[in-house]
Specification:
The complex is a heterotrimer. By secondary structure, chain A is mainly α. Chain A is built from 4 helices and no strands. Helices cover about 55% and strands about 0% of the residues of chain A. In chain A, α1 packs across α2. The longest helix of chain B has 26 residues, at about 5-30. By secondary structure, chain B is α/β, with parallel strands linked by helices. Chain C is mainly α. Chain C contains 20 helices and no strands. The longest helix of chain C is centred in the first third of the chain and has 47 residues, at about 75-125. In chain C, α2 (about 25-40) packs across α6, α3 (about 45-70) packs across α6 (about 165-170) and α8 crosses α18 (about 450-470). Classes of the chains: A mainly alpha, B alpha/beta, C mainly alpha. Chains in contact: A-C, B-C. At the A-C interface, α2 of A face α11, α12, α13 and α14 of C.
């Protein structure tokens, strides 16, 4: 999880990922950030998150992102 | 707020919008549908809608008039002042847009019914009357309801709820209104004609120049079309004739001149059909095909004839025996015996001789007997030499009045006419030039600055010295044999900037920058008045020719000078070839001249004189 | 039928009354009939073309739907996997085919003429220039139906089985002229369920329509001739006038496009159908990225969901990412893919705007700054840490707004110009010969910037600004008005109706200029 926070903060230094739970709904993350983050996630955790996974509920909080990563890791 | 109340509120707001709309149109009244009492502007409403506005305008003035011109655009130039002079009646021109003979009939009926002392109606017809259908009665230009027969309710509704655009345009035009007519105020309410002050002072020269400027207004028809409204038109004319006969009113029917451009849209066969149909119901004058038809200068555009052209028409109608104009100009057709288009063409071809002249004009200023070393002054000897030169070359010096007579009455000019002019009114004109003129019997025109006449030493009341100007004694001499005509170079609009204490200085006749048309007109009129007084004081006839100081002038200058009776104006434009045209006084406006000085060679003078336009 | 005309209002009123008179389950039929009538007033030929598109996308939608619903029936897991893969491939092929068909027709109808002309200029082939009738709203329904097909193939939406209902979704008349590009999942339920009559919808709809028509007439159409004369004759004026023209064009375009959208969204609300929002006070944006989230939202969302994400997360770009990580420093490497894909997306936006290099340049201009902005983020964070001034939110907000508008205005040099060369010339003219001192009241007057126009546009813009500020704070203005005392409401309604009647509906001097985005 800390690895994730580090990754996220690296991508978007202006966002407080530890507190926010409506990253998408409040438009703190925009599509560019998401693509960047997904790219990083795919690389770091060696998973494959595709365009079909890009739903707000998967990205609204660091928690949710972590769940998505776990899920994809388990699938493989 | 509940939904229903809300809806009620919206409907109430909408209702109020309609009330405001109606009140706004009623107050501004651009169509003069309700009397136009709040923002009265007759010229505007007549322009927007002559049918409605003229009827409303005339309805409380019917007792001032006892004769009316009826027709559409082709009737516009039938000026009441000219008609009145010939007939002794008091004419009002009721012409309207739309060339709708059914409306002509309704209008004639209404006038005959409302005005018990009508003496004469002048019905003018063009080609469009035989071509255009009746205007729909619910249209904004269908006319005043007592004339058009529309119901009062529909008339009121139509104008109360006319687009507010018209009222807004009227208000915005009001801010832009000037002394001279613009597109939104082209009418003279007092007599119902177009305000052609600007078009009537446009300098006219060669046909080529005129077409270069206005050629776009004279398109040639691509194919001949039929006249689709001949019998309704003839029927309406017949009914007007019957109405007049019943009331004992004289009816004059005139087929107005038509430009070649418009004529090109119809075959002679079609025209004959029209002429025959008309001849079955009335006598009429036919001016449709004349020598003028083929000269665009006699027309403002393809469907509007010049005021001066109609002057010629009325000369012909009311003084047919005066041989001023050629025999083929206008034909009177008795009822039942129409004259065919082919005959008219033949007559026009026979009558159509030369009706223009080229007139070069020389301009002089000061002369000295012995210039000594001063090369800027023209010697008396050189002047005498030049006068002999032009006589020997076959030129005939004429007076300005000869040009005016040529234009007004067709009085022939000698071959190769030339005009000699001298600006400023120097004493040397008398001491040096006059003896030469007398010896050679050469008429000349001198343009004197009114405030300088008789000033031999000083500029006005100052101590600045000036070249001496002639005075009373010299003028007496000029008046005695009439060889020299003294005319105007303005009273005081040729000021020397260095010698004047006030500012801005009127160094020429043009308006100051930022000067309003009204202020300028007042200043120019005052100057003209002062000049007339000075001329009277010296026993001179009032001037009617003016040379522009420094040659500058503007349209409004020409308008005001024409209004004050000036017939001819001169510039210093060497490039203009002066072509004067019979019947068109505009051809005497803004004539060009060559300045002759000591450096001018004989060749230059001869080259200038020999230029021709046509 | 122009949506600015009195005829449209009459048509709308009739449709609304009929809509609520019918029983709920049949109400959608009125919407369908109204859409049909509306489209037919634009001519039969365009309608026929549209019909073909609707039939095709309807059929393919059903096909894709059927493919999505097939459950693998194999015995073993391997068999099922193989079957699944085969189905997936088939679905992909079907989807690709219909999307190609859909977009090819758009490209053919919209761009072929200018391409042929361009080819001709280069190779002098004297080819016949094709002239197609450009059907009303073509790019909007192509985008909308494509999104539907993609969603169906992904199983995100169930295909519509009733052809007439599907036709209504594709051709719902308020969205026909210039969008917004609605999503099937959002729009369809509202169209088919038969909405209850609700005064709030009527009130909001009426206010929104009035706001839209007045924005269009009083600002956009008033400025259009002025903008036209600047863009066509910028050489005759000092360079700063070109900039002024481009800035006024921004205002014109916003009032034109958003005014039209307000009008049709308001009209739609009368039926209780809430279409997608297309604008959110774009000129208050603090960055270009922010601008594109506030400007033409339905297009931006479409591009994001159906072009940006699929492209950025595609296998090719994942491979590209990997490669970047090897050759670039990490900070740059992770931003490489979003940057490149953003650039591609904005090229697509440029092409969507119209043929010609100037539109391409417009896309590139935006793509360039967007990409640069992304690369700039870490740098900006470090700068902010170092300098206290950069942490002043208010100041940075103002700076951001100014900077963003500057970029947008320069972008408008390209999107409005007739050619790339003339846009570049105009830009050069602005920079090389600004000529501030040469600008005079007389010159602006000659351009058409007269006092009455200035007053009219100034007052209208003051209202626009007030409304925008309120909206920015989350106020729904039409609701706010309906909560005022009735005297205030009456006064406002009277004023709005008076302006609408005097300036638009009863004004013979006003000829509505076609919407800029109409037929795009």
């Amino acid at each position: 999880m800390d690895e994730l926070y580090e990754l996220l903060e690296d991508c978007c230094p202006d966002v407080d990922f530890r507190a926010e739970t409506h990253l998408i709904d409040d438009e703190l993350l925009e599509s560019l950030d998401i693509v960047m983050i997904v790219g990083e996630l795919n690389d770091r955790f060696d998973i494959s998150i595709s365009a079909d996974d890009l739903l707000p509920e998967h990205f609204n909080s660091a928690e949710a992102i972590w769940n998505l990563v776990q899920q994809r890791m388990n699938e493989d | 707020m509940s939904g229903k109340r809300w809806l009620g509120m919206v409907l109430a707001a909408l209702l109020l919008v309609f009330v405001v709309w109606a009140l706004f149109n009623d107050a501004v009244d651009p169509f003069k549908a309700f009397g136009d009492r709040v923002v009265p502007w007759d010229s505007y409403s007549l322009t927007l809608n002559p049918r409605n506005s003229k009827a409303v305008y005339i309805s409380d003035k019917l007792d001032e008039f006892d004769a009316y011109v009826i027709g559409s655009s082709s009737a516009a130039s039938f000026l009441p002042e000219v008609l009145d002079a010939y007939t002794g009646h008091h004419y009002y021109n009721m012409f309207h847009y739309g060339a709708d003979s059914a409306y002509d009939l309704r209008l004639a009926a209404w006038l005959l019914e409302q005005d018990p002392d009508v003496k004469q109606l002048c019905l003018v017809l063009g080609l469009n009357e035989a071509n255009l259908p009746e205007t729909k009665s619910d249209a904004l230009d269908s006319g005043w309801y007592p004339v058009s027969g529309e119901s009062r309710a529909s008339y009121w509704a139509k104008f109360l709820f006319a687009s507010p655009h018209y009222s807004m345009e009227k208000l915005s035009s009001l801010r832009q209104d000037t002394l001279l007519p613009q597109a939104f105020d082209v009418f003279v309410p007092e007599d119902g004609t177009y305000d052609k002050r600007v078009r009537d002072v446009e300098p006219i020269g060669s046909l080529e120049d005129y077409l270069a400027l206005h050629g776009g207004d004279f398109p040639t028809a691509e194919s001949a079309e039929a006249l689709t409204n001949i019998s309704p038109c003839a029927e309406a004319v017949g009914q007007i004739r019957a109405l007049c006969a019943e009331k004992g009113v004289e009816l004059l029917v005139v087929l107005a001149p038509v430009s070649e451009s418009q004529l090109s849209g119809y075959t002679d066969e079609t025209l004959n059909e029209y002429y025959t149909a008309l001849s079955q119901v009335t006598d009429y004058w036919n001016f449709q095909i004349t020598p003028l038809t083929f000269d665009a200068r006699y027309f403002y555009d393809d469907s509007h004839t010049r005021n001066d052209t109609i002057r010629m028409v009325l000369d012909r109608v009311f003084a047919p025996d005066d041989e001023k104009w050629p025999a083929g100009f206008g034909v009177y057709c008795q009822q039942g015996s129409p004259v065919s288009a082919e005959t008219l063409r033949t007559l026009a071809a026979e009558a159509g001789g030369k009706h223009t002249e080229t007139v070069p004009i020389l301009m002089y200023h000061h002369f000295v007997a012995d210039p000594g070393g001063e090369s800027t002054l023209l010697s008396t000897e050189a002047f005498a030499h030049q006068m002999r030169l032009l006589l020997e070359a076959g030129y005939h010096p004429v007076a300005v009045q000869d040009l005016i007579d040529y234009v007004d009455r067709g009085t022939p000019l000698p071959e190769r006419p030339v005009l000699i002019t001298m600006d400023d009114g120097y004493l040397s004109n008398y001491t040096e030039a006059y003896p030469v003129l007398r010896e050679l019997h050469i008429p000349a025109t001198i343009f004197a600055i009114g405030c300088s006449i008789g000033h031999e030493k000083y500029y006005k009341d100052t101590e600045f010295t000036l070249t001496p100007h002639f005075g009373q004694a010299e003028i007496q001499e000029f008046l005695r044999d009439g060889l020299v005509s003294v005319q105007s170079h303005t009273y005081d609009m040729h000021q020397e900037e260095a010698y004047e204490s006030h500012s801005p200085v009127r160094s020429s006749i043009v308006p100051f920058e930022e000067e309003s048309q009204e202020d300028y007109a007042a200043a120019l009129r005052a100057d003209i008045q002062q000049q007339n007084e000075v001329f009277q004081r010296f026993g001179l006839p009032a001037p009617n020719v003016l040379a522009f100081p420094r040659g500058y002038h503007e349209t409004i200058t020409d308008v005001i000078l024409k209004e004050a009776g000036y017939r001819c104006t001169l510039t210093t434009d060497e490039s203009r070839v002066n072509t004067i045209v019979q019947g068109l006084p505009q051809s005497l406006i803004d004539l060009g001249r060559i300045n002759v000085g000591p450096e001018t060679t004989d060749e230059q003078i001869l080259a200038y004189l020999s230029r021709t336009a046509d | 039928m122009s949506i600015n005309s009195l005829a449209f209002l009459g048509f709308l009123l009739a449709a609304v009354v009929l809509y609520y008179l019918l029983p709920k389950q049949h109400r959608w039929v009125i919407l369908f009939a109204a859409s049909l009538v509306f489209y037919l007033t634009y001519g039969l030929r365009a309608g026929l073309y549209f019909l073909v598109t609707i039939v095709l996308t309807y059929g393919f939608g059903l096909w894709l739907d059927r493919l999505s619903k097939i459950r693998p029936a194999g015995q073993t897991r391997e068999e099922r996997q193989a079957e699944k893969q085969a189905l997936k491939r088939k679905k992909r092929a079907v989807l690709t085919a219909i999307l190609l068909l859909n977009f090819a027709s758009l490209l053919l109808l919209k761009y072929s003429a200018s391409w042929v002309v361009a080819l001709d200029q280069v190779f002098h082939l004297s080819l016949p220039v094709p002239s197609f009738l450009l059907p009303l709203g073509i790019s909007f329904y192509v985008f909308q139906t494509s999104a539907y097909l993609i969603d169906v193939s992904k199983g995100k939406a169930a295909a519509e089985r009733n052809f007439l209902r599907y036709a209504l979704f594709a051709a719902y008349f308020p969205q026909l002229v210039q969008g917004p590009i609605n999503r099937y999942q959002d729009l369809a339920p509202q169209l088919f369920r038969g909405n209850d009559f609700d005064w709030a919808n009527i009130q909001n709809g009426v206010w929104r329509m009035l706001y839209g028509i007045l924005k269009k007439a009083l600002i956009a159409d008033a400025l259009a001739p002025l903008v036209q004369s600047v863009y066509s004759g910028f050489y005759d004026y000092p360079g700063v006038v070109s900039f002024l023209g481009a800035a006024l064009y921004c205002l014109q375009l916003y009032c034109d496009f958003s005014g039209g959208i307000d009008l049709v969204c308001g009209a739609s609300e009368l039926f209780g159908v809430h279409m997608m929002e297309n604008f959110r006070q774009p000129y208050f944006s603090t960055s270009l990225a922010d601008f594109w989230r506030r400007w033409h939202i339905s297009l931006g969302e479409w591009m994001k969901d159906y072009l940006f994400y699929p492209l950025a997360l595609s296998k090719s770009f994942q491979r590209f990412s990997k490669w970047c990580r090897k050759v670039l420093p990490p900070e740059l490497a992770k931003r490489a893919t979003p940057c490149v894909v953003t650039f591609i997306v904005f090229l697509a936006v440029g092409v969507w705007q119209g043929p010609g290099l100037s539109n391409l340049a417009y896309g590139m201009w935006n793509g360039f700054w967007m990409s640069l902005g992304l690369l700039w983020v870490p740098k900006a964070a470090r700068l902010r840490e170092r300098y206290a001034l950069l942490r002043k939110d208010r100041l940075m907000q103002v700076f951001g707004i100014l900077r963003t508008n500057l970029l947008v205005i320069v972008g408008r040099y390209f999107s409005r110009a007739t050619s790339l060369m003339s846009a570049l010339r105009m830009l050069k003219h602005t920079l090389v010969r600004p000529g501030f001192s040469a600008v005079s009241a007389e010159m602006l007057h000659g351009l058409g910037l007269t006092m009455p126009l200035l007053i009219q546009v100034g007052l209208a813009c003051a209202v626009l600004l007030a409304v925008s500020l309120a909206q920015e704070r989350g106020v729904r203005v039409s609701r706010w008005i309906t909560e005022r005392p009735w005297g205030v409401q009456f006064a406002l309604m009277f004023l709005a109706l008076l302006l609408a009647v005097f300036c638009v509906y009863a004004n013979v001097g006003y000829t509505p200029i076609a919407y800029v985005y109409e037929n795009i």
